[in-house]
Design a protein that fits this description.
alpha+beta; 3-stranded antiparallel beta sheet; 2 domains; Immunoglobulin-like; 126 residues; transmembrane helix; transmembrane
Amino acid sequence: MTAKWNWLERIVFAVSCVLVAAVLGFIAVDAWTMGDTPPDLVVTVGTPLQGSGHWRVPITVENRGEETAEEVRVGVDLRQGSEVLERSELFISYVPRHSRREGWVTFLHEPSPADLEARPLGYAKP
């Protein structure tokens, strides 16, 4: 017994085959061209906002490397000249390759973006 396909079944089958082939091709190309450079974390400080008894500062961590970073710790210092007035720390659990994550740190003293110094303190490889 042979089944006859109507025109709609043929179109759906063809489109499905093309989509599956495209997804498999994309995954193969991505895996083939992926480098092995370690995470390259870049920390950006945003504009401080006043909260209830404290100042909130947005922090963006961008991973420009080819590998994922886990357990990322970011240190943010509020400086006045060479003196550190306050220190705050941000923990981000996961920053995939070529992506960014955002978080907030808080300070008691009013910060200006010029007085803030942020840097990655460390991360773990998954």
